[in-house]
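Help needed: design a sequence for this.
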């Protein structure tokens, strides 16, 4: 029997999930999970939940599905040690460093590969299975036939998303939010750039505006019987940011169908769909599940999930915050009592989570009542919060006010998620008294890990010097004018024809050419890619940039040299060590990386293993499909007037910034610190001699490329802790300044009095 797995973003959602019959829940704690903006669980709440659910023969999984920088590792080690003591049923992980650390120190922890790992093939699933992972959450953009293929070629458990929000980008490959300010999806800080309002330059209609990259929500209620017959082990509902009412209604629908479809498939499906009718989310799609071939999906999937007129928000639009009003005395008392009650079970409870403001909305067609669940969206996309309305008041002018969480402003949008009539009360999962649950991460010291020293002649395929990456053979001819030590050629539909079918003669020896593989490796193309790689090796191409773990499996035993690409995220030495154990000796650093973390991860003795990207047009969204025909634009911009471009081909679609990422003026600094392999990446762009000259001149003269971006090079990932430190420093400086001014003024006054 397949498992029904539900999200538990807070205690109420946990109660709803279990109350409606979920077999298991997944949740995050206060760090190392991909939904840092959800409430998440305090230590004692989590410990109590594990104990309570195990008594009910239910399972509980913990999300540890973010990448960690080198500075995070001590805290990560202590966190894993804590989880090892508490004993959840599994950890959902993304970072290969977590796998490596658990293999070394916590082998009893069951590991599940997160969808953020970007696994969509049997080869990828099997590699993780051999590494000790019991289950893999495969990518969301797969079809029924692909799931069937993977299931028939692996013994590992499969978990698939069946309901909830979709990412427009291929799983684990979105860099857009990170590019906009360091809030990386790979760090649980996604600001949902796909849900934003963009202005496009349409060839047929001129300037137009819309939600061009905001996808519909996934709903696979009709496919559940087929997936159960395939033997898929776990059906996952997305929604750790959603309300308890949402979780309850969706779990109830899927539970009913799973339990009753064999007796009456048509009737059970009709009932399940009625139960889902209260899901006030976006329009629904089955996405890739009805396509028989990869080519059919590439051509048609975009029009199924994208609609520029579909608002980026979730739920029924209630309007925007127009003004704020007086907080009624009874509401102040409610807030105080709720906060005091929370403190009894959770000493970490924040006062701001219980106190509210009163807001008047304008622009909607429904007035929410007490008990209704709403969702608030900040205008600048820095936060989205669900809230249950407790109080309604009317002022002397007849304006209606509702209570909302603190931290929102005029102009922020509000949506209806559930009405009170849909709400249910569920038995509590946690006991009333959780005082006995007191375990927390301790002060363990992470043992030192040293990466393998480079042996003589080990990296003969990876010489010092300049590397240039291109997407076409014609661009290769242009780029060799700069005499790179190696040319990297992207493997795509066009270069496949040139290299495999036409076998075009190249101006370089095959030893000087490295083949870079696409980070998305779907099951429907798995056999073709394996065949192509076998032929490329036979033709004399020996060095490959692998960007998906499936590539490692496909090239194993073929005598090839493997370089871990930027999409096999190595933000820490433990991740690099895991890849070393897969016989990978060289690495291209992730595009999101910072200079400080680069130095911390790679000690001087192993920096000859590293190729640093100094120039690139980062792929911010990587979409598996071609864009719909009415998306007849090349450029679009956001509300800050930042310009982006989109490239749509038979290989899928990519969104890139118009301005490149560049640190070419830092190449001498890199070289002097032992990073002597530098990459200029012109993938997905046409290489011109003019741009090549400009970039290389900037490198020689140590001058920044005009109008370029540093990405996260200087500031690194956005860090709430760092922001708090800066804020505290500023407040201290302001206080000292005020105190100094006060002392100075007092001194002047005393002098006046003496006169």
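Sure. Designed sequence:
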């Amino acid at each position: 029997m397949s498992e029904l797995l539900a999200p538990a973003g807070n205690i109420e959602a946990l109660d709803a999930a279990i109350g409606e019959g979920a077999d298991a829940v997944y949740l995050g704690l206060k760090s190392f999970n991909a939904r840092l903006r959800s409430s998440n669980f305090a230590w004692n709440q989590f410990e109590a939940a594990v104990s309570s659910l195990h008594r009910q023969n239910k399972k509980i999984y913990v999300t540890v599905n973010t990448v960690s920088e080198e500075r995070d590792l001590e805290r990560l080690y202590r966190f894993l040690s804590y989880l090892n003591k508490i004993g959840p049923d599994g950890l959902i992980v993304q970072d290969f460093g977590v796998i490596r650390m658990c293999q070394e120190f916590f082998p009893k922890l069951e590991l599940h590969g997160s969808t953020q790992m970007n696994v969509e093939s049997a080869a990828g699933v099997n590699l993780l299975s051999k590494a000790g992972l019991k289950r893999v959450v495969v990518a969301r953009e797969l079809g029924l036939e692909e799931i069937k293929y993977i299931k028939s070629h692996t013994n590992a458990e499969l978990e698939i998303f069946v309901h909830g929000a979709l990412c427009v980008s291929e799983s684990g490959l979105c860099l857009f939010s990170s590019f906009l300010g360091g809030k990386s999806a790979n760090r649980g800080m996604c600001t949902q750039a796909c849900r934003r309002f963009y202005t496009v330059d349409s060839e047929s209609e001129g300037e137009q505006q819309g939600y061009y990259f905001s996808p519909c929500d996934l709903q696979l209620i009709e496919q559940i019987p087929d997936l159960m017959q395939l033997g898929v082990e776990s059906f996952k509902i997305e929604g750790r940011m959603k309300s308890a009412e949402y979780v309850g209604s969706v779990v109830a629908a899927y539970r009913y169908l799973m339990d009753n479809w064999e007796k009456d498939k048509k009737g059970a499906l009709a009932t399940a769909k009625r139960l889902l009718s209260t899901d006030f989310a976006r329009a629904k799609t089955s996405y890739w599940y009805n396509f028989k071939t990869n080519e059919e999906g590439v051509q048609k999937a975009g029009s199924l999930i994208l609609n520029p007129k579909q608002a980026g928000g979730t739920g029924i639009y209630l309007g925007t915050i127009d003004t704020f009003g007086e907080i009624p005395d009874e509401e102040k008392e409610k807030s105080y009592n709720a906060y005091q009650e929370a403190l009894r079970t959770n000493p970490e409870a924040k006062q701001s989570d219980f106190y509210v403001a009163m807001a008047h909305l304008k622009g909607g067609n429904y007035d929410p009542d007490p008990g209704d669940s709403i969702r608030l969206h900040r205008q600048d996309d820095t936060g989205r919060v669900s809230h249950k309305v407790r109080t309604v008041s009317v002022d002397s002018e007849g304006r209606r006010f509702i209570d909302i969480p603190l931290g929102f402003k005029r102009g922020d949008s509000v949506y209806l998620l559930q009405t009170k009539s849909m709400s249910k009360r569920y038995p509590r999962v946690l006991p009333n008294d959780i005082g006995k649950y007191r375990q927390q991460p301790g002060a363990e010291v992470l043992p030192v890990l040293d990466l393998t020293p480079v042996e003589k002649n080990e990296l003969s395929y990876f010489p010092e010097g300049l590397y240039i990456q291109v997407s076409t053979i014609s661009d290769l001819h242009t780029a060799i004018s700069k005499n790179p030590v190696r040319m990297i050629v992207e493997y795509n539909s066009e270069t496949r024809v040139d290299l495999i079918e036409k076998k075009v003669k190249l101006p370089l020896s095959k030893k000087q050419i490295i083949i870079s593989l696409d980070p998305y490796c779907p099951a429907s193309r798995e056999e073709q890619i394996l065949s192509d790689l076998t032929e490329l090796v036979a033709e004399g191409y020996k060095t490959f940039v692998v960007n998906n773990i499936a590539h490692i499996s496909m090239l194993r035993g073929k005598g090839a040299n493997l370089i871990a690409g930027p999409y096999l995220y190595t933000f820490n030495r433990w991740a690099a060590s895991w890849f070393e154990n897969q016989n990978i000796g060289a690495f291209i650093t992730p595009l999101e990386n910072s200079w400080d973390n680069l130095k911390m991860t790679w000690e001087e003795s192993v920096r000859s293993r590293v190729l640093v990207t100094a120039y690139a047009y980062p792929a911010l969204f990587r979409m598996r499909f071609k864009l719909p025909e009415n998306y007849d634009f090349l450029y679009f911009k956001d509300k800050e007037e930042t310009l982006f471009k989109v490239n749509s081909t038979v290989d899928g679609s990519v969104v890139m910034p118009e301005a490149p990422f560049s640190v070419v003026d830092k190449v001498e600094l890199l070289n002097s610190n032992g990073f002597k392999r530098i990459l200029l990446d012109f993938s997905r762009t046409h290489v011109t001699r003019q741009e090549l000259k400009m970039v290389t001149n900037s490198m020689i003269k140590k001058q920044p490329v005009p109008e370029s971006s540093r990405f996260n090079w200087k500031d690194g990932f956005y860090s709430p802790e760092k922001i708090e430190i800066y804020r505290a420093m500023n407040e201290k400086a302001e206080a000292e300044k005020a105190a100094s001014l006060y002392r100075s003024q007092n001194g002047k006054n005393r002098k006046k009095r003496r006169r």
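The first helix runs from residue 11 to 19.
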